[in-house]
Amino acid sequence: MQLSIDLGSSDQPIYQQIRDEIVSGIASGQLRDGDPLPSVRTLGAEIGVNLHTVNKAYKLLQRDGFIEIQRSRGTFVRAGDTAKNAAGFIESSGRRIQALVSDALSLKIDRTVLHHMIDHYYDELEGKGS
Amino acid sequence: MQLSIDLGSSDQPIYQQIRDEIVSGIASGQLRDGDPLPSVRTLGAEIGVNLHTVNKAYKLLQRDGFIEIQRSRGTFVRAGDTAKNAAGFIESSGRRIQALVSDALSLKIDRTVLHHMIDHYYDELEGKGS
DNA sequence: TAACTGTTCTATATTATATATAACACAAAA
DNA sequence: TTTTGTGTTATATATAATATAGAACAGTTA
Question: Which helix (H) or strand (E) holds B97?
Fold first, then answer.
């Protein structure tokens, strides 16, 4: 699978953008369990970024359980059965979120407010699980 | 109105946290149109932060139209008729967002994916307006 | 006048980000 | 074995972002 990563349009650090795009790829089903990721050097060369920057992104993804890094062999997606259903989630949730954003924007509510509300419920639910 | 700002729990810069908390305050109705904000020195002293850091947050809020800065007089909330309805939005949207997060989390979908989807629709809708 | 606004300026310190180069340890293929 | 390709580690450097500090300025208000 071809990994396309756009840089520069965001004000976030490069390693974060890489990480987020790969997470999105997994969630959308473009990246599936077992798929190999490009090596840190290859991906770095492709997008014009240093190998350490890619490595930093990979470390974050490993920490969060999205990928598995095998020394000397490569890195592979670890999505379990998540990816299959995740694509459906994005498909089915698009309208929901669009409606939510429309309501918020009509009231001039900043996007960060929605981010915070989402984070709040994430923290709440993840807190119960630990 | 008493402004309570928590720092340290986030990995975001202080001036962003201040900015976001005030936006949330406006959206939730705790801060209403015309309400005076603490001076940069007062708020800085309250939360243990330099005056320039607070000033930076205020400048962002001014740029986005959330507050009005009057030289030598003070800064005041400019929420229009937004704040009234915004409180209702948060009240009514809580369950919606909670359900959305539950679905996402059950699929191990990262919160950044939701952030991105929200940003996507924000950009889409704001793009039409310009 | 005196006290309080935001503003501007200079200066410094720390951290985050990103790159550069080299070398290492290990696995797989030639 | 040799070569190539992994991730990894180490050191070094450069730049930008973040935050603080102190002083002074211009204007408003009591």
Answer: helix B82-106
Q: 3-state DSSP call for residue A77?
A: strand
Report CB contact under 8 Å: B110, A85: no
Q: How far is CA B13 from the centre of its chain?
A: 14
Structure-token pair, residue B63:
């740029």
pLDDT category, A11, cuts 50, 70, 90?
A: confident
Q: Give, in Å, how far the C1' of D21 lies from the CA of B63.
A: 26
Pair B63, B53: CB distance under 8 Å: no
Find out whether A26 and A83 touch, Cβ atoms under 8 Å. Answer: yes
Contact between residue A54 and residue A7 where contact means Cβ atoms under 8 Å apart:
no
Q: Decide if pLDDT at B39 tops 50.
A: yes
Contact in structure between B16 and B57 (CB atoms under 8 Å): yes
The pTM assigned to this predicted structure is 0.82
Q: What is the phi/psi pair of residue A34, to 5°? A: 95, -20
Question: By the CB < 8 Å criterion, does B10 face chain A?
Answer: no
How far is the C-alpha of A36 from the C-alpha of A73, rounded, in Å? 10
- Contact of B12 with chain A, judged by CB distance below 8 Å, is answered with no
pLDDT higher than threshold 90 for residue A52: yes
pLDDT at A130: 43
CA distance A66 to A43: 17
Task: Give, for B36, the enclosing helix (H) or strand (E).
Answer: strand B36-37
